[in-house]
Amino acid sequence: MAAKNIQGTSRADERDIERLLHSAPGASAVTRLSAVETVRARILLSVEHGLLVPGGKLPGTELIAAGLEVSVITARRGLESLVEDGVLERRRGRGGGTFVAQHPPKLQDDAVRAYLDDVPAVLRLIDQRSLMESAIAAQAALNASEAQCLELEDLIGQSASAANWHEHHIPDTRFHRRVAEISALPEVPAYLFCYESLLKYFVPYPQEQLEEGRTHHQRLVDAFRARDPLAAIDVTREHVDALRREMFFGLPGGNATEPGTAP
Is residue 262 situated within a structural domain? Predict the structure, then answer.
């Protein structure tokens, strides 16, 4: 499909549309990292941006693995490498565990650099997700039953009662996948590929900073109950667009860039 002769668009706009339509979802630099390196980078980015604060206790390794969608062995190796570098520390005995060091060093880490190099690709993924998720939400608004709305609200409740980001991540991703299933659109596999590609770039957040997303999810369920696809599209676009300021490159001290520019 060519983006030509679209009323009200400039030649530059048409080139951007062509790139958005035909660029493959995913990214380049991060796909070359090992799973251990991705764990390392995501924890480091959270520490560097103050999302994981000095002295703060991390969840158990099993929960970190589930939240980052890696094996327990992979999560353990990533954490151990950060302990060796002095970013994290292990404490034994009662109340022990893994903690952020009081004065974590500033590392010039290749894995973090790979994430920063991929910012233009991540921004394209956000655009692609916004387009596809809007269509899915609109169709789900026409399909959703009351039982399905209650199921989605249960997932919102599980997220709200989570002790940390890693616990929240599990019901949160189930919510998005369930909405896609409710839509029953044939393009759902392509959407899930884009959605899951973007998940690789999420970093752990303090639980109190996740409330806005849960509010969006409840508004989406309300739109489903009202059989209002336009309202579902509006809240979906608001929800996905928030990623531009909430992902690691949009945070204070982050490295946001526009697609096609150097990060």
Answer: no
Contact by Cβ (8 Å): 58, 79:
yes
**243 and 142 housed in the same domain:** yes
Residue 13 phi, psi dihedral angles, 5° rounding = -60, -40
Last-in-domain residue among 71, 93, 112? 112
Domains in the chain, number = 2
CATH number of the structural domain spanning residue 148: 1.20.120.530
> What pTM, to 2 d.p., does this model score?
0.76
Instruction: Please give the chain's pLDDT, 263 residues, in tens.
Output: 444 444 455 666 555 555 544 444 444 556 678 899 999 999 998 898 888 889 999 988 998 998 888 999 999 999 999 999 999 999 988 888 999 999 999 888 888 888 888 888 889 999 999 999 999 999 999 999 999 999 999 999 999 998 888 888 899 999 999 999 999 999 999 999 999 988 888 887 776 778 889 999 999 999 999 999 999 999 999 999 999 888 887 766 544 433 332 22
| CATH code of residue 38 | 1.10.10.10
Q: How far apart are the first and last CA of the chain?
A: 29
Cα separation of 30 and 201, whole Å?
9
